Amino acid sequence: MKKVKKKWKLKISKLTILVLLLDILVIDGLLLVQSDKFKSFWIPTAMTTMSHKYLAYTLYDENTVNKVMSENYIESNTEKMNLDDIVIGGSFKTHYTNKYEQELFTKDEGNDVYKTIRIIEPKYKGWLIGIYDPSDITLGVTKKLKVVGQTTTSFLKDYDGVVAINGGGFEDLDGWGNGAIPYGAIIQNGKLVWTHAGGSGGLIGFTKDHKMYLTDKSPEDAIADGMEYAVEFGPNLIVNGKVSKIHGDGGWGTAPRSVIAQRKDGVVLFLIIEGRLPGYSIGATMNDVIDILLRYKAYNAANLDGGASSTMSIDGKLWNRPSAGGEYGGRTVSNAWIVTNKQNKPCKAPDKKSFK
């Protein structure tokens, strides 16, 4: 009888501990949900997705969601760009202002076209590509507009490219968009090849002189200014060396990111941040992205389509870990920024195994 009684007490004790632990978890969860820090993380992150906005309303009412979103936004720098500040064609840099600049200009062996840099931070991981000659940049547009987009790897094949990242946004109803219908305007080879409602931000592109040009002008006026390639997205993050004002986390939450930028010496930067991959990389805020760009002396920069669309391909292979569709070579997108190596310089692709 004593042994039976002892076991019964032990069971009660374990059950009590379990209940107490559950109570603590529930209380901690409620406290976490009510904290301003968690609200500022959760709500913008959910609201900037195409098909998971409901997650914001699962935990909070409409007034709370609207209040948080009104406190987290970006005052995009829309001042007129001074393209004369960009001076292309100088001698290769040998004096560095910081270790990041030295890293950028220390070429990979056998590669005079671009430099591959691994980005590793506590919350996220990503890749930065420095393209030494901006005349190597072109814009690829899906060959089946209105039907289906292409992966960044497919764009490389069609445009004989060596590096590609995704560009502007596209219709993505219920998260099932396939890149067929781009949002906003697309300029290719100095011509307006597409325009569609829904574009956010302004035009992001390059002039015939290979200078990055960010503008709110109409496509026709931008072409008159010399715009050669452009997509419509945003927001602008840096203009003329001045950072856009970020309120809170900018209202874009924490997510995978794609960004394009240019330094004053003409070097172009492709930045991909991996995200929505628990245990590997959560994603980055706009503030995080700007911090990285400033390390490498970006002078002009703009946000491209992010989330599951954030993809980068190098040497015919998907390079980053997208948040979805990686097993199929990445999501199909409407357009992509491509490095072509028009001058046939030495261009040995890096060995991915050499990166952490």
Question: Characteristics of this structure?
Answer:
26% helix, 356 residues, 2 domains, five-stranded antiparallel beta sheet, alpha+beta, globular, seven-stranded antiparallel beta sheet, disordered N terminus
Précis, in short:
This protein is an alpha+beta fold and 356 residues long. It has 8 helices and 19 strands. Residues 1-13 and 15-26 have low confidence and may be disordered.
Describe the structure.
The chain has 356 residues and is of the alpha+beta class. It has 2 domains: 2-73, no CATH class; 76-354, no CATH class. Helix content is 26%, strand content 26%. It is built from 8 helices and 19 strands. The strands form 4 sheets. The protein has a 7-stranded antiparallel β-sheet, covered by helices on one side. Strands 4-19-5-17-18 form a 5-stranded antiparallel β-sheet, with helices on one face. A 5-stranded antiparallel β-sheet has the order 7-6-10-8-9.
